[in-house]
Every structure is written in structure tokens, then in C-alpha cells.
Amino acid sequence: MRGRRAGVKRFCRHHRGVGSTLPCRYGGGVIAQPHTARGRGTRRTAVTRPVRALAAILVGVAALAGCTSQVRSSSSSAAPVPVSPSAVDPSPNPTETLLPESTSSSAVGALAAGFPVDLLPVPPDADILVSAADPIPGSTDLQVSLNLRTSLTPAQVLALYRTPLTAAGFVEAPADQTNAALAAQATFTRSNGDEILVLGVLDRDGIRTLTLGGRVHASS
Fold first, then answer.
1. What number of other Cβ atoms are within 10 A of residue 36's Cβ?
2. Which end of the chain is least crowded, N or C, by CB within 10 Å?
3. Is the pLDDT higher at 31 or at 185?
4. Is residue 7 scored above 60 in pLDDT?
5. Partners of 23 in the beta sheet?
């Protein structure tokens, strides 16, 4: 009996101070061990931390996805930039001229008075649309222009004007094909650039439309 009581006392002394005590029949107190409660609390804390971390990651991903969707939505719903009609140069019809508006000395359907036909000949089958030869104030120069239709090929049209112009001392500048709508174009200069003539040929449906214009000396 004494040995049993001594064992119980040793048990009580070993667990004294841990948790709450229960009355001990043999003296001292028996410790109520909170193993289950402590285990649940530890597990709950261990689970809560990664859940919170995962929630934070999901919130960040959702925010990023929202930004991305807004960017895509903005890009897809963005209205196209309207193109101003003046930004696109329509190709002229065969009946259109490439010259500015007629002047007071312009002649429709014929050569204007004073037009330098020796320097700027007209094809035999030409259908003259409009021409002009305007004196430039303060000089002896003429502002000339010519618009006509012909059955000559673009190369033949260039040759028709190249021959008399180069014979008169004009120099043909290197071709600058800046207007894709033209089948041929050329620039001739003389007097260190003081005199200049520019011509272009439009080819539509087998009909060539010539337009030329520039400044020449009246004595040419």
C-alpha cells in the first residue's frame, strides 16, 4: 500500500505546474493534459498561414489578369483612326488634267497665244485640253502649261520633247519616279535652273494624257 501511494505522489509531482490540476484521491493533483487542444491549435495555425499566402497570390494574379483584360479590351475596342480624304491622293481619270486652274490667258481646246510651240511641240494626233502662256511680271519669262491626250506611248511622248529641249540647251535631270500613277515623267532645266520644265504622262486604257508646265524665257 505504501509503495502504491509513493508511486502516485511521484506521478503528481512529475506533472505539477503543467495545465490545470484535478483533485487527486491520494494527495496532490493530477494534471489534465491539453494535448488535444494544443494539437488542434497548432494544426489550425499551420494551415491558416499557407491559405493566407495563397489568397494573397490569387488576389495579385486576379489584379494582373484584370489589368491585362482591360488592356486587351481597350486595344480591341479602340476606334480605327479615320483617314482624311486629303491624305490619299486619288489617281486622276484620263479626262482630268494635272494642271492648276486655268488662268486668264488659258486656251481650252487649242494652243494659247504666245505658246512656244517650237520648243514644246504638239503630237500630230493630239487632243489639246488646255494650254497657257502667261508673262511673268518683272521679267521676260513665260509661265507655260499644256495638257493634252495622245495615242503615242509614254516613251514616244518623252522623246518628242526631249529632242527639242536638249537641242536648245536644256539638261534632263535624273528621273525621280515620285508619282507612281504616272507612266513617265521628266524634268529639264536651263540657265542654272532659272528655266525649268516638268512633264508627266498618265497612261489609262491605251490613252496617254500629257501634262507639262514650267518657266521659260520668252525668246526661247
1. 8
2. N
3. 185
4. no
5. 29
